[in-house]
Amino acid sequence: MNAPDEIIHQSIRLQISAILHARAPGEAMEFKLLKSLLRLTDGNLASHIATLEKAGYVALRKDFVGKKQRTQIALTRAGRKAFERHIAFLKDIVDGSQQVTKLDEIAADRRNRKPSINRRNA
Fold first, then answer.
1. Which of 4, 46, 72, 80 is the most exposed place for a label (fewest CB within 10 A)?
2. Is the distance from CB of 20 to CB of 97 less than 8 angstroms?
3. pLDDT given for residue 29 in this prediction
4. Is residue 68 domain-resident?
5. pTM of the predicted structure, to 2 decimals
């Protein structure tokens, strides 16, 4: 079974990673758009981005459009791999719970069956 990635596991960082993973490798998204999609404040998003950047999961590019600074964020190769491993971990959990549910259903079905009558002992 895969292990969880504690950095990506936090719900906002999981959403950030999912949004960036949906883009082509290396394709960046503007900070403003990501903030709007997630409905976060500048500070809250910046804090989560900083955590992902420190882990090497995202790269930031800053430039200017006219006189305004623009920040773009892209998932790094390491970030993509970490996200994919974390999703595999979550799928393992879901698949395992589905198997447990199936086993529970089989056990319940067996408990609810009426015992067959053995005609030799009747």
1. 4
2. no
3. 97
4. yes
5. 0.78
Residue 19 is assigned to a structural domain of this protein: yes
pLDDT band at 20 (very low <50, low <70, confident <90, very high): very high
CATH number at residue 51: 1.10.10.10
Q: What are phi and psi of 83, to 5 degrees?
A: -65, -45
Question: Mean pLDDT across the stretch 28-46?
Answer: 97
Which structural domain range is residue 56 located in?
A: 6-112
A 10 A CB-CB count for 47 gives 13
Chain segment 53-95, per-residue pLDDT in tens: 999 999 999 999 889 999 999 999 999 999 999 999 999 888 8
**117: in domain:** no
Distance, CA of 73 to CA of 20 (rounded, Å): 8
Does residue 118 fall inside a structural domain?
no
Show the CA angle centred on residue 97, arms to residues 93 and 98, nearest 5°: 120
Counting beta carbons within 10 angstroms of the beta carbon of residue 57, is it exposed (0 to 12), middle (13 to 18) or buried (19 or more)?
A: buried
Quote the number of domains for the chain: 1
Residue entry with tokens 């804090």: 47
